[in-house]
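Async update (no meeting this week)

Hi team, since we skipped the sync, here's where things stand on the single-chain job. The sequence we agreed to prioritize is pasted below, unchanged from the tracker. I ran it this morning and attached the output directly underneath so nobody has to dig for it. Comments welcome in thread, and please keep replies under the output.
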Amino acid sequence: MNVLVFDIETVPDVEGGRRVFGLDGLEDAAAAEALFNLRRQETGNDFLRHHLQRIVAISAVFRSRDQIAVWSLGDEQADEKTILEKFFAIIERYSPTLVSWNGSGFDLPVLHYRSLLHGVASPRYWDQGQDDRDFKWNNYLSRYHDRHTDLMDLLALYNNRAFVPLDQMAALLGFPGKMGMSGAKVWDAFQAGDIEGIRNYCETDVLNTWLVYLRFQLIRGVIMEEGYRMELTLVQDYLQREERPHFKEFLQQWQAAGVTPRSPGPAAQ
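Output:
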């Protein structure tokens, strides 16, 4: 089975904001602040609606056969349309099981609206049985199907009062959690031109999500203890082999927590 864990990072869509709210003449920073102010007046917080979130990074863990890969789609100069095309191309080619943390509540709706904006097609993703009969009973769009597993939503039993932040859940299990940045800092990093930092941060988020997903697969009996330990070893070997600084830091923090292939987690110690 092919599994694709994904996470997105976004910034205000200042160009779209200018069109929607008539903010012509404002520089990007001023236009973004105007969007934040409008949102605060509306809701009391400045978290913009999904359609005004511009995607600047999609990172992924792809698990297939005996291999694993962790990367960000496109290069640092890739525009939003290119990043979207690369994401949906993976679905068109491999029909993977998608795994996310709050993907139903945030990532996928943003992907939908931004694909609509750019005209990015993905017949496989949108299929609900029209092209493949199996997709009538298990597709990417239904909340209760497992072709997309939103771990946060499922573990909370679809009850938003029970939602848990990814970094807290990962840390509770002995994984690194947030490293060096948070979603609230992405706009600042983007303005400073730190696309690499944003992509690295997004990659550590999908690593945390993958590790939590492996624990979920363990408790539901999809993998046994031996298989779980093998998966942890596969991830650690990959991070060691890649020799990228943020992977090295992730591995060091993970090992410092004492969660190793021989030690499933804090609860078992």
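Quick observations from my side:
The longest strand covers residues 53-64.
The two ends are 31 Å apart (CA to CA).
Reply here if anything looks off.
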